[in-house]
Amino acid sequence: MDTIITNGKLVTPWTTIEGVTIGVEGEKVACVCRGDIPSTAQNVIDAHGNYILPGIVDCHTHFGAFLPYEDDLRAKPRQRQLEG
After folding, report:
1. What is the C-alpha separation between 10 and 17, in angstroms, rounded?
2. This model's pTM is above 0.70
3. What's the domain count of the chain?
4. Which pLDDT tens digit goes with each residue over 30-43?
């Protein structure tokens, strides 16, 4: 794996999982687990209890604008159709 992200809170459409380790290979999530991932990754990121939101690439989001922040993170993502 190229990158390992540790000690974060992984947000999924269904729940938030604390204390996960995520392995990234290239531009894709390769594995998610609790505990350490044996790896020789040169890039190790300690998320230090921060939320990890895979797939959120919009730099302009409004989490917590209409719902309490924690509830908004747990809310099912809205499906959006991109117009091209």
Report:
1. 5
2. no
3. 1
4. 888 887 777 788 89
